[in-house]
Amino acid sequence: MIIVSTDGSCLRNPGGAIGWAWVNHAGPADSGGAASGTNQIAELRGVLEAILAHPGTEPMLIESDSQYAIKCASEWITSWRRNGWRTSTGGAVKNVEIIKQIDRAITAREGPVRFRWVRGHVGNYFNEQADKLAGEAARAVRDNPALGRDETAPAEREPSRPQGREPATAAAKITISTGKSVAPSAPTAGTLTLF
Questions:
Q1: CB 64 within 8 Å of CB 118
Q2: Is 27 helix (H, G, I), strand (E, B) or coil?
Q3: Half-sphere exposure of 118 toward its Cβ, with a 13 Å CA cutoff?
Q4: Distance (Å, rounded) from C-alpha 42 to C-alpha 34?
Q5: Beta-carbon neighbour count of residue 152 at 10 Å?
Q6: Rg of the Cα trace of the chain?
Q7: N or C: more exposed end of the chain, with fewer CB within 10 A?
Q8: Residue 148: exposed, middle, or buried by beta-carbon count in 10 A (0-12, 13-18, 19+)?
Q9: Is the pTM of this model over 0.70?
């Protein structure tokens, strides 16, 4: 099973520079950002990028400290799709374009995608690494807006990027290394797995 932690960062919510990141528990990571956005967009972008970066048949578990991102991708998405991308009260779904991209990425991926909520900022190594990379990406774009791209309207692309790219921020490549192999950890207190 592929286990990936994701996170998003917004330096001033809404409207500040944003960063997103994913960290594969067995190795690679990636991050990026945009000059302006919301924390919700950043969290969703981390989920989308993680799915796109891990094609194939192997089951995938995404860990996130964002209940919003997890519920969008695993609970609410089915009803929204069935209701023509409207909420149960008939209102427009917020962040619908990126949520539709997540829906397409999950559907296109041969293997199943599952989600687990983890409590943030309590020492979960992979969550902390994703948080760090997302923050670094947001700060890099804030300091040099030319590095960012429009994360609120991501370009359409097929979910076919290869797994195992080197970790990156919008400014430079960053390697995450503990100097040893890190085995995926079992769920601990403060986790909720959605299957």
A1: yes
A2: coil
A3: 25
A4: 9
A5: 15
A6: 16
A7: C
A8: buried
A9: yes
Nearest Cα to 56, choosing from 102, 115, 116, 113? 113
Closest CA to 15 of 45, 41, 47: 41
Distance CA 93, CA 86 (A): 5
Structure-block tokens of residue 43: 């969290």
Quickly count helices (H) and strands (E) in the chain.
5, 6
3-state secondary structure 7-30: EEEECCCCCCCEEEEEEECCCCEE
Q: What is the pLDDT of residues 123-179, one digit of tens each?
A: 999 999 999 999 999 999 999 988 876 544 444 444 443 344 333 333 222 222 222
Instruction: Give the other-Cβ count within 10 Å of 157's Cβ.
Output: 10
Strands 60-64 and 2-10: parallel
Query: H or E stretch including 130?
Result: helix 125-143
Question: Using CA atoms, how far apart are residues 22 and 51, in angstroms rounded to an integer?
Answer: 9
Neighbours of 3 (CB within 10 A): 18
The one-letter code for the residue type at 90 is G
Q: Encoding tokens for residue 38?
A: 């919301």
Q: Is 97 helix (H, G, I), strand (E, B) or coil?
A: helix
Residue 76, SS3?
helix
Q: What confidence tens digit (pLDDT) does each residue in 27-69 have?
A: 999 999 999 999 999 999 999 999 999 999 999 999 999 999 9
